[in-house]
Amino acid sequence: MKKVMLFLALGFGVIQLSHAQLSADKPGGFGVRGGASLFNFGGDDVSENAYTNRVGFHVGGYTMLFMTDRLALEPGVYYSVKGTQNDDFANSRAILNYVDIPVLFRMYPGEGFNVFAGPQISFLASSKFEGDFFGNTVSYDSDAIKETDIGLVLGVGYNLPKGFNVQASYDYGFTPIFKDSDADVYNRGFKLSAGFTF
Question: In this structure, are residues 99 and 123 in contact, taking their beta carbons and an 8 Å threshold?
């Protein structure tokens, strides 16, 4: 938990510093965002239909830094629950919790509508594997997952009246997630989000 709080504090500090430096002559604002996540393992070494999407959530904050009328830079920090599900006899699952720090470039081709993309670094907060056996849930912490994950975020969004916004995005992980393994297995998943810019 101390590691999670440290990463969250660091991320919010970077957001506030960026906003303080640019907000004097550019419009923008600080915001909060959260929603549902659907994550799975992807990659060449993942057997087709071996896993199914696992439902999680994400929540955090961002700052909107407009560089032009139609282009904004958006750093953020989020707590995000990822992992995967296996429809085997034990309903086994991996629960991977990260602190995501994306830096998005958001373009507004029309009023309210926007598209965005950017890199993301994720720091592992905790990881465990679970299974259900004879009515009981068996869970154990795992140290097999790498501490950092690098990826790309792509998505579309829409700004609603009075500061509200909605968006859909896809996280495409580039870093194999298992330590001491050559397996091409990555974090991949969708996020559906709602936010509010102050």
Answer: yes
Domain count, the chain: 1
User: Tell me: the pLDDT tens digits for 89-108?
Assistant: 667 888 999 999 999 999 99
Is 171 in contact with 164 (CB distance < 8 Å)? Answer: no
Return the residue matching tokens 């996020």.
191
Cα dihedral 23/28/32/36 (nearest 10): -130
Alpha carbon distances (Å) from 85 to 40, 88, 94, 109, 175: 7, 9, 7, 38, 20
- The predicted model gives 100-117 an average pLDDT of 94
Backbone angles phi, psi at 176, to 5 degrees: -55, 135
Q: What is the mean pLDDT of residues 142-152?
A: 92
Specify whether the CB–CB gap between 62 and 31 falls below 8 A: yes
**CATH number of the domain encompassing residue 121:** 2.40.160.20
Token pair 């194999």 is found at 176
| Model confidence, pTM | 0.81
Indicate the DSSP class of residue 111: S
Q: Which two tokens stand for residue 125?
A: 């907060």
Domain that holds residue 94: 2-197
| pLDDT of res. 139 | 66
What does the alpha-carbon distance between residue 23 and residue 67 come to, in Å, rounded to a whole number? 10
